[in-house]
Design goal:
With about 250 residues, the chain is an alpha/beta fold. The protein has helices at about 15-30, 40-50, 65-75, 100-120, 150-165, 185-190, 195-205, 215-225; strands at about 10, 30-35, 55-60, 80-85, 125-135, 175-180, 240. It has a single domain (about 10-240), classed as NAD(P)-binding Rossmann-like Domain (Rossmann fold). The longest helix is centred in the middle third of the chain and has 22 residues, at about 100-120.
């Protein structure tokens, strides 16, 4: 028996990296997985790698109309929603000196606003006992130069996870935050200047006691744990999957 047979899951930002790896794992565990992404082509390609256990709904988590359309698509299945992995988001480098209102607003709109309204729009669909998993970051726990806006947005996610765990406890809905360290994804490599991807990965690996960056499937394993009954006595928690980077 797989851990999530008959369950319905949603993964935002499910077309690459951690999101795609998690969608693949949730489907392998028996869930029907809805995934989002900004373009039809990338959504279609991701669904093709997952197979019959996936439905793709293109959309942008910062657009409320897109979230309404996503909720309607999930609702049409008439099975409710058992798992949310609010994964979509991102950030770019900017020092305090170089910070702009536009960059700050965009970072918080994607990482905080997108997460808030994704979960809010899905609330009517959540079944009793559902699991909501938020995407945190070790950046919220350390001082990373030129990454202040992103780090602050992820600190906000940690706070929201605690608040929502308290608010939704009456519906037996658990809310936890998974906290990846550096993971080899297109998002991380995209922060490097042209031709500097390996140097960036090597530099990040040097900060990790285990001596390497993580792989998307390692984070996916943690999300599956939080989605399943294996974590039934966990809510409001942070689960660090960072090779010891913030723990040692």
């Amino acid at each position: 028996m797989t851990q999530l047979n008959g369950k319905t899951a949603l993964v935002t930002g499910g077309t690459s990296g951690i999101g795609l790896a998690t969608a693949q794992r949730l489907a392998a565990e028996g869930a029907h997985v809805f995934i989002t992404g900004r373009t039809q082509d990338r959504v279609d390609a991701a669904v093709a790698t997952i197979g019959e256990g996936a439905t793709g709904v293109p959309g942008d988590i910062t657009e409320l109309a897109d979230l309404d359309r996503l909720a309607a698509a999930i609702g049409q299945r008439e099975r409710g929603l058992d798992v949310i992995f609010a994964n979509a988001g991102g950030g770019e480098f900017a020092t305090l000196e170089d910070e702009t209102p536009e960059h700050l607003a965009d970072t918080f709109n994607r990482n905080v606003g997108g997460t808030v309204f994704t979960v809010q729009k899905m609330l009517p669909l959540l079944n009793e006992g559902a699991s909501v998993i938020l995407a945190g970051s070790t950046a919220a726990s350390v001082g990373s130069p030129a990454f202040g806006a992103y780090a602050a947005s992820k600190a906000a996610i940690r706070s929201l996870g605690r608040t929502w765990a308290a608010e939704l406890a009456g519906r037996k809905i658990r809310v936890n935050t998974v906290v990846p360290g550096p993971v080899e994804t297109p998002g991380l490599k995209g922060l490097a200047p042209s031709g500097g991807e390996q140097a960036l990965l090597d530099g990040e690996a040097a900060k990790v006691p285990m001596g390497r960056v993580g792989q998307p499937d390692e984070i996916a394993s943690a999300v599956v744990f939080l989605a399943s009954d294996q974590s039934s006595f966990m809510t409001g928690a942070e689960l660090f999957v960072d090779g010891g980077a913030t723990q040692i």
